[in-house]
Amino acid sequence: MDGTLIDADEVLSDKAIALSRRLKESGIMFSLATGRVEYLADDYARRLGLSVPYVACNGATLVDGRRVIERKQIPVQPLAEIIEEADLMGMSIVYSREGCESVWRETPWILSQRTRFDRYHTVHRFSPEEWASLTVDKVSIMDDERDGRIACIEAMCRRLPSSYGFTRYVDRSVEIVDGSADKANGIASLARYLGLDMNEVMAIGDHQNDIEMLLRAGVGVAVANATADVKEIADYVCKNRCIDGVVEAVDHYWDRMVPCRTEGIEVQQL
User: Fold this and answer.
1) Residue 86 in contact with residue 155, Cβ under 8 Å?
2) pLDDT for 83
3) CATH 2.70.50.60 fits 74-178, yes or no
4) Helix, strand, or coil here: 245?
5) What value does the mean pLDDT of the chain take?
6) Three-state secondary-structure class, residue 27
7) How many CA atoms lie within 13 A of 111 on its CB side?
8) Which residues, 6+ apart, have CB-to-CB distance to 41 below 8 Å?
9) pLDDT of 269 over the 80 cut
10) Whole-angstrom distance, CA of residue 82 vs CA of residue 97
11) Rounded to an integer, what distance in angstroms lies between the CA atom of residue 10 and that of residue 187?
């Protein structure tokens, strides 16, 4: 969603809402696959008028309105060394539990996000009891300096058990989730839930956490502002960025899109 449907200002444009309406009226299913947790995605889903569930938390959560269909979580105890090291390095740490986010401390980046987007108000560090038993949806570690130090955190993540997965976003951040959680698996769960095959899916993205999704979908599209590695694996690279690219991709593949019956559809159990 970020960098694809919306730009850095996080504004959902009238163009995006019109596209969602156009697809819905044409009987074509449209949904979101986002790294955001649901409390940061729900308003977008509502304003888009989604009629099917969406994928949140980089594939760890499948949400239908206010109902969570699927949620994958990770124990925090094996992450203690990573979190403590990131904190010592002055990085920003954000973790999500049951779809709501908390922060480790109020760093300059956290305070700027609070001022700009009115989020990250809850500050909480784990107690010894929580370290021993708590599970979370994901942990995000942000390097405010973006000077390459995030490579140290990535190296520590590589030593985690296979039950953990992580994505590095260039020099900006690392995000840790369940080992089976990525947007590709999230979209596959959504397709299975709706009784669809992945060959019937077109996925559009811009960043490293979209690569598996674009490869697994029947058609994978990169918007113009996508990273080079995303463009390299895409079936189609847009000339336009963000929502203009999404509209371009829909127009480009319009003749290949097949209407689906969404009302009363027989869904599958996950």
Assistant:
1) no
2) 98
3) no
4) helix
5) 93
6) coil
7) 4
8) 1, 32, 34, 54, 56, 63
9) no
10) 18
11) 23
Residue 74: closest CA among 173, 189, 165, 167: 165
Assigned token pair, 34: 């986002």
Mode of pairing for the β-strands spanning 219-222 and 202-205? parallel
- Residue type at 129? E
pLDDT level of residue 20 (50, 70, 90 thresholds): very high
User: Hey, where are the domains in the chain?
Assistant: 14-71+182-256, 74-178
| CB-based contact 214:230 (threshold 8 Å) | yes
pLDDT of 262 higher than 50: no
- Name which of 70, 4, 74, 85 is nearest 38 in CA terms: 70
Tokens of 141: 């570690």
Burial letters for 220-258: b for 16+ Cβ neighbours within 10 Å, e otherwise?
bbbbebbbeebbeebbbebeebbbbbbbbbbeeeeeebe
Contact 137, 97 (CB under 8 A): yes
Class assignment of domain 14-71+182-256? Answer: alpha beta
Q: 37 and 96 in contact (C-beta within 8 Å)?
A: yes
Q: 166 with 160: CB under 8 angstroms?
A: yes
Sign of the C-alpha dihedral computed for residues 124, 130, 136 and 142 taken in this order: positive
What confidence score (pLDDT) does residue 260 get?
A: 67
Mean pLDDT of 170-196: 94
Q: How confident is the model over 32-55, as pLDDT tens digits? A: 999 999 989 999 999 999 999 999
Supply 270's token pair.
Answer: 């996950």
Q: Which helix or strand (DSSP H or E) is residue 64 part of?
A: strand 61-64
Average the pLDDT over 146-161 and give the result: 95
Cα–Cα nearest to 114, from 103, 125, 124: 103
Average pLDDT over residues 88-95: 97
